[in-house]
Structure prediction request, 392 residues.
Amino acid sequence: MNKFNKKRAFIQGIFAFIGLGLGAAYLPLMWQGFGYSTRTWFNNEISNAIIGALVFWLLSLLFSGYFERLINRIEKSLTSKSPAYLFFGSISTIVGLVFAILISTPLYRINSPIFNSVVPIILMILFGWLGFRLGTTKRDEWRKLFSFRSKKNDDGESIIDRPIDENYHHYKILDTNILIDGRIYDLVKTGFIEGTLLVPNFVLYELQYIADSSDSIKRVRGRRGLDILNKLREENIIPVEMYEGDYDDISEVDSKLIRLAKEVNGVIVTNDYNLNKVIEFQKVQVLNINALANALKPRVIPGEHLDVMVVKNGTERQQGVAYLDDGTMVVVEDGRYYLNEHLDVIVTSAIQTDAGRMIFAKPAHSTHEINEKDDGAKKNSGKQKNNQKKAN
Prediction:
């Protein structure tokens, strides 16, 4: 028997067991309503239990498929939740059921089927659901409440270790782009990142999908991301953990990252400008590698000389584009005439954009030519004035 049939047979057995108890408890009342006395061949404890089990087993044949699909959805949903979600949800549900039992105990003394059976069941469902919701929606507050730990100072006295500061986030969640970029490995080696790197499974699956792409460029990028992840785990410079859960109700990986960051109180590490803006709008902290690189780039001032190599034409007429070693774009006036040549330029201005820093410059020899022309013009005008004076 395969797994599907085993699960369905188990559901049918549960139905039959429930019918067994309900038949033994309530069928005598039904027979009395029809005027039949007890202790007949069809109205006794055994026959009533068998009839109840048979009726519910027949019902299970109609509804077992629905219950099986419901159980599958519940299992899938629970496996995608974090351990903290399941733990606090279970504890709070148990507490809610205990309260329901305490409230229902006096009701059993009332001689009424409604107060003896129906009301306690309703109370248990209601308090169990309220307890589960209270435990799962407020799990961050519960975690902070139970995060007090007892320590001892140098004098051996017990002290209280308060919860971690709100500005500290233990988990640094890596997205797909930051692993493909590869600079996270160099940044981790410097020791500036602390805590634990958290790599969700859905990010790993996206990397695998890119690495298996038919496009050679995407395939190289995906494999690079997998290599960087393996290097981080093998060298063990900083703890790296995998998040096994997923969010089936969310299709986009970026939205899943934001949801995960809120649940684990983590920080998303990325180099994606658009994702950066979305994360900030969602009030989740983000570490942008590009913003860090721009902040660490050396400053340039107008009049400073740079040695650059013009690699392509600019968007405007006669402009050329060069790049510094750190990737900063340099727009050179008349640079199109010096493609693939090293050129000494003078910085005229620099601006900071959302995409990075941009420098404007012009060739250094153009200023020399202008100065020489100006000097020559001044000398000629001086000679003309002297000649006019002599003539007069």
Observations:
- Residues 45-79 form the longest helix (35 residues).
- The chain is about 55% helix and 15% strand.
